[in-house]
Amino acid sequence: MPDTWIVTGGAGFIGSNFVRLALAEADVQVVVVDLLTYAGNLESLADVASDPRFAFEQADIADRAAVDRIFAQYQPSAVLNFAAETHVDRSIDGPAEFIRTNVMGTFELLDAARRMQETRPPAERERFRFLHVSTDEVYGSLGEVRAYKETYGLPALITNCSNNYGPYQFPEKLLPLMILNACEGKPLPIYGDGGNVRDWLYVEDHCAGILLALQHGRVGEKYNIGGSAERTNLEIVDALCEQLEKIHPAAENPALRAAGVAGYNELKTFVTDRPGHDRRYAIDASKIRNELGWQPAHDLDSGMGSTVQWYLENRAWCQSVQSDSYQRERLGLA
């Protein structure tokens, strides 16, 4: 029997990409645990749903009874926690959901893992791993996860990533929002002066780093995973417009003619900055490069080209996941 990995938030953007990679690269059973809130959708896993090594549980990770049942049923050898509310603007409008999922949910998973470990023989306890997936936005604020390693001996690791982009990202995020708006001849809203800086990481490269950290990383350590591609938001939008012009030329797009513009760049619109918009994030990925030999397989140009192509070819997915819950309106207006 293969090992079993529980992947929480596995129907979301990064989680679904990781599930796909895990089933392709590892001899494991993958159990996705997801509440299927606005950003989680089973259509993001449609291509692996028939794999006999795939299982799905719709559950809230902050629900102790549900988490206990799932741990008891599947007896995982690893837990990867991707489940989180992630959009800063949404956290300003509705912080309670963030506290429930990101704090209480993480606690319930850690506590269930700790209690499960207490009943296991030593060899199984040593082999178990708990990997918490975090971001550069909260760097340094998740000490309590590592405290479970120090206090209880739980074999835990943390990965911190920079801004992810790529297939299956919910359309509230910058790149899919811009791609879809541009294709439809709609404005490309850029917050403030467009000078906010992020490091951009193709999601498949991120998932490869997580898999490497899970299988070969040192227990109790943090591994930063970044793309070494710092750009301002304005530079990202300009690069995106260039990719769109290559793949779907403006001259062949009737939506742009209807909007009265000759090129995608003419759709750029500067809007009032959003609340809580930090000026710059940066990440040093030298540790995972040096210790584990990880390298991103995509530079920004190739990753963005693949991303644009994917969204152009998967418009039905975009329409389906948006449904009535989000129609590309501005968030964070509280």
Tell me what the structure shows:
This protein is an alpha/beta fold and 334 residues long. It folds into 2 domains: 3-166 and 200-225, Rossmann fold (3-Layer(aba) Sandwich), CATH 3.40.50; 174-198 and 231-279 and 299-322, UDP-galactose 4-epimerase, domain 1 (Alpha-Beta Complex), CATH 3.90.25. It contains 13 helices and 12 strands. The strands form 3 sheets. The chain has a 7-stranded parallel beta sheet with strand order 3-2-1-4-5-6-10, with helices on both faces. α7 (174-183) packs across α12 (300-313). The mean pLDDT is 91.
Round the Cα radius of gyration to an integer and report it.
20 Å
What is the CATH-assigned architecture of the largest domain?
Answer: 3-Layer(aba) Sandwich
Order of helices and strands: EHEEHEHHHEHEEHEEHEEHHEHHH
Shape: elongated
Into which percentage range does the β-strand content fall? 15-25%
Query: In the CATH hierarchy, what is the class of the largest domain?
Result: Alpha Beta
Q: Count up the domains.
A: 2
Number of DSSP strand runs: 12
N- to C-terminal distance: 51 Å
CATH superfamily of the largest domain: NAD(P)-binding Rossmann-like Domain
CATH topology of the largest domain: Rossmann fold
Largest sheet: 7 strands, parallel
Q: In what order do the strands lie side by side in the largest sheet?
A: 3-2-1-4-5-6-10
Number of H/I helices: 13
Helical proportion?
Answer: 40-55%
Would you tell me the structural class of the helices and strands? alpha/beta
The averaged pLDDT comes out at: 91
